[in-house]
Amino acid sequence: MARIIVITSGKGGVGKTTTAINLAAALNLLGKEVVLVDANITTPNIGLHFGAPITPVSLSHVLSGRAKVHEALYEHHSGIKVMPASLSLPRNMNLDKIHEIAKRLKRFGDIVIFDSAAGLGREAVMAIEAADDILIVTQAELPALTDALKTIRLAEKLDKNVRGIVLTRFMDSLHEENLENIEAMLETPILEIIPEDDSVKEALRLKDAVVHTHPESKAAKGYKRLAAKLLGKKYVEQLEIQEKKGKFRRFLRILGVE
Ligand SMILES: Nc1ncnc2c1ncn2[C@@H]1O[C@H](COP(=O)(O)OP(=O)(O)OP(=O)(O)O)[C@@H](O)[C@H]1O
Ligand SMILES: [Mg+2]
Fold first, then answer.
1. What is the CATH number of the domain that holds 95?
2. In terms of residue numbers, what domain contains 81?
3. How many structural domains is the chain composed of?
4. What confidence tens digit (pLDDT) does each residue in 148-159 have?
5. In this predicted structure, what is the pLDDT of residue 190?
6. Residue 199 CB–ligand 1 contact under 6 Å
7. Is the CB of 28 under 6 A from ligand 1?
8. N or C terminus: which one in the chain shows less Cβ crowding within 10 Å?
């Protein structure tokens, strides 16, 4: 059964969209069928980060009952299925439908990733409610950590499984004990640390995941380790072979052989 992973944060601008597209790309390279949903409805970003097409039908249309789920899914060149949000401010949306849409999306892949809005507004809360697993993205700064804690508490109140923290834009100046302090403060394990990396900026300029544009960069390797971890695997060289197999399978699919 497919799982819904919601990528969320307390504070805005901490790296959720970067994490969502790169986790999607890394899982896809490991041979998983991935659906990526731009659930940041009022300020959508997937299109900007991932070069997803500006399309006539989006999540907003599904939420307002004007389209069916499959009509709002588009295939990215990597093979990932993307559901964009509308760039114009949508009207008559029923956010309660997110839960139902998430359930329906499970038919379209092994893993459904929601890039959510920050904070504790209705948009973010509805995405959290739709989750099987939650990843909290934060930077290692007190304001971001304090807000992350609020999101974790809310998720727990909603009986949701917080898988862990993704610490982004990490600078080398933090030591082991600081990491332990962060885990203690949030009462949640740090799953992966993604370093501050100029390749991420370059990937954004190229409108693609850093996992695709700079596969050997530190950030890309971090996201690949995170993907492997979520699948219960350790990212070792062997997984690179699996990655190649995943690519080959997708190539066959494009040719209609598989
Ligand atoms: N590891 C990194 N190294 C360098 N820059 C990064 C890294 N991760 C993210 N960034 C940059 O930080 C900025 C914010 O990232 P992103 O858009 O992913 O955050 P967000 O949490 O989705 O923001 P919002 O709350 O507005 O949706 C972007 O310019 C992105 O390129
Ligand atoms: Mg974002």
1. 3.40.50.300
2. 3-254
3. 1
4. 999 999 999 999
5. 96
6. no
7. no
8. N
